[in-house]
Design a protein that fits this description.
The protein is of the alpha/beta class and 355 residues long. The chain contains eleven helices and 15 strands. The strands form three sheets. Strands 8-7-6-5-4-3-10-9 form an eight-stranded parallel beta sheet. The protein has helices at 35-48, 60-72, 85-94, 109-122, 145-162, 177-188, 205-221, 236-249, 272-283, 301-304, 336-350, and strands spanning 9-11, 14-16, 23-27, 52-56, 77-81, 98-101, 126-131, 168-173, 196-197, 227-228, 258-261, 291-295, 310-315, 318-323, 326-332. It is 40% helix and 19% strand. Strand 5 (77-81), helix 3 and strand 6 (98-101) form a beta-alpha-beta unit. It folds into two domains: 9-249, TIM Barrel (Alpha-Beta Barrel), CATH 3.20.20.20; 258-349, 2-Layer Sandwich (Sulfite Reductase Hemoprotein, domain 1), CATH 3.30.413.10. It is elongated, with a radius of gyration of 23 Å. Bound molecules: iron/sulfur cluster (SF4).
């Protein structure tokens, strides 16, 4: 997979773009003015693996809360600004590591110039965050929504470049997956800056994760994208888990264990669903990138899951433990879970067999 090589920039200590790993972002859903609740959620997000966190800044009280929040967290903090450039200035003064501006609702050149000048002095990157639902006026003539989004982003990027500012990141978020893919492909060929990928308002996890995985997956596979956020109507930790699963599926990041489990069929000799759920819960605490399989039968299980570092396959009144497709031993049915956990523990301590 050849990655598009963008100009790297730093959001706090995290590099975005260039050859840096594709970073995972999320956004708090607390009231930013409630400093304690926001800090608490950012710490939860940190535990889930988020690398950059964004908070909404709806008013001046929220902007002023940012300096207290920033002091309590180790993660890079981005202020999300709509409509009022003064909130961007206050956020910069509060010490944020990045800004997201929506060009659809901050339009006056002199206001943008004030924000850009302060960001330039402080070397703080700005994301030009275009959303399909809030495009600025004047782009109705373009033939497609994706083209209109790209044109809106390019106008803002050119404006910032004219102001001698190039710490730029761009996002072009749409709910419609083909529109989002087309828009990012177009802009990837036009600008050298890092791209933040996302599907906007993707929905509840069941469908939102699929929409995000398809949209971002296509682009990431083509080498497009430097940082991602999965937007879900859920606790933001679910966004982070989904983001890593997308990156892991493409081999772009390694984080934590991966469960392989068969769909079951008439040959299954154990309760695969129940066991897989129990193992999945156990793997939440395993931080090494190991692969663990739960397969219904010994006829096909070990062979089909031979990439797994360790696995169990159902046998008559027993489970068959295997490593890398090679059978190790049989265990009584009632000990399957404990035997598998013991193998997981031993591999986790030694590190994955696959690395
Ligand atoms: S591993 Fe066995 S039980 Fe599971 S789907 Fe394959 S054949 Fe069926």
């Amino acid at each position: 997979m050849n990655r598009r090589r963008s100009i790297p920039l730093k959001i706090g200590e995290v590099t975005v773009g260039g050859v840096a790993p594709i970073s995972v972002q999320s956004m708090t859903n607390t009231d930013t003015r409630d400093i304690a609740a926001t800090v608490r959620q950012i710490k939860e997000l940190e535990d889930c693996g988020v690398e950059i966190v964004r908070v909404a800044v709806p008013d001046m009280e929220a902007a002023e809360a940012l300096s207290s929040i920033k002091k309590e967290i180790p993660l890079p903090l981005i202020a999300d600004i709509h409509f009022d450039y003064r909130l961007a200035l206050a956020s910069l003064r509060a010490g944020v590591d990045g800004l997201r501006l929506n060009p659809g609702n901050i339009r006056k050149r002199e206001q943008i110039a004030m924000v850009v000048a302060m960001a330039r002095d402080r070397e703080i990157p700005i994301r030009v965050g275009v959303n399909e639902g809030s495009l600025p006026a004047g782009f109705e003539v373009a033939e497609s929504l994706s083209r209109r989004m790209v044109d809106a982003a390019l106008r803002q990027v050119e404006l910032m470049e004219e102001m001698n500012f190039n710490l730029i990141k761009v996002s072009l978020k749409s709910f419609d997956v083909p529109t989002m893919i087309e828009a990012y492909r177009m802009i990837a060929a036009r600008i050298p800056y890092p791209l933040h990928l996302g599907i906007t308002e993707a929905g509840l996890p069941r469908t939102g994760v699929i929409r995000s995985a398809i949209g971002m997956g296509v682009l990431l596979y083509e080498g497009i994208g430097d940082t991602i956020r999965v937007s879900l109507s859920a606790h933001p930790c679910e966004e982070v888990v989904a983001a890593y699963e997308i990156l892991k599926a493409l081999g772009l990041r390694q984080r934590g264990a991966t469960l392989v489990s068969c769909p079951t069929c008439g040959r299954a000799q154990i309760d695969v669903l129940k066991l897989a759920q129990e193992v999945d819960r156990y793997l939440e605490e395993v931080h090494k990138p190991i692969k663990v399989a739960v397969m219904g039968c010994v006829v096909n299980g070990p062979g089909e899951a031979k990439s797994a570092d360790v696995g169990i396959a159902g046998g008559k009144d027993k489970g068959i433990l295997f490593k890398k497709g090679r059978v190790i031993k049989a265990v009584p049915k009632e000990n399957i879970l404990e035997a598998l956990k013991a193998e997981i523990d031993s591999i986790s301590e030694k590190g994955p067999l696959s690395e």
